Amino acid sequence: MGKLIVASNNYNKIREIKQILCEYPVDILSMKEAGVDLDIEEDGATFLENAYKKAKTVYDILEHKFMVLADDSGLMVKGLNGEPGVHSARFAGEHGNDEKNNKKLLNLLKDKDRESRRAKFICTMVLAAKYDKILQVQGEVEGIICEEERGNNKFGYDPLFYVPEYNMTFGEMSAELKNSISHRAKALKRLKEEIGKYI
Q1: Treating both helix axes as pointing N-terminal to C-terminal, what angle do 11-20 and 183-198 enclose, rounded to 10 degrees?
Q2: Which of 71, 101, 110, 147 could potentially form a cystine with 91 if both were Cys, beta carbons 3.0 to 4.6 Å apart?
Q3: 132 is an annotated ligand-binding site residue
Q4: Is 150 annotated as a binding residue?
Q5: Which domains occur in the chain, in start order?
Q6: pLDDT (tens digit, 9 = 90+) per residue, 179-192?
Q7: 167 is in an annotated binding site
Q8: Annotated binding residue at 73?
Q9: Which of 143, 149, 8, 124 is nearest to 68 (CA)?
């Protein structure tokens, strides 16, 4: 069985990737599980720059022996001029504090109209594979930021991201539904065929 190293230690992100790629005979490991103890600074100006940096850094550390997948994703809100964007994970100043990030987002959008609350999730993925091939894809999904959290799935901005077609937030969706329509799912679907070539 081949190995795919995800350039992340984010449990929720890796769980989603495993669920979406479950049909492939590949062992999906976090950086920590692959023996890479490193905190890669995401200092790029775009999602692509951050994803590329993470993929290439881990791929080089592992001496090009395994495929490495990195993503950088975030939320862009129309009424906030595209913020939080690349700063989504540390919007409130502390990396990965979903509660504080959501609270800040709600405060900034207080009394804003529906048009200002229009938003989209973006996921840019970079795969470093055999023969030093670098592949990049992007997936997007559009929605609206709610006025309060909805749903039990508290991953990131999910309880605030409402998808009109389904009359639910990501936080209210089953894992199966979210993983079929999300920005990460769309990006991974575009990579699936390529990943299959290297397993």
Answers
A1: 60
A2: 101
A3: no
A4: no
A5: 2-198 (3.90.950.10)
A6: 899 999 999 888 87
A7: no
A8: yes
A9: 8
CA–CA gap between residue 140 and residue 162 (Å, rounded): 14
Instruction: Tell whether 96 is in a known binding site.
Output: no
- CB–CB of 182/10 below 8 Å? no
72 band by pLDDT with thresholds 50, 70 and 90: very high
- Cβ 141 vs Cβ 180: under 8 Å: no
pTM: 0.89
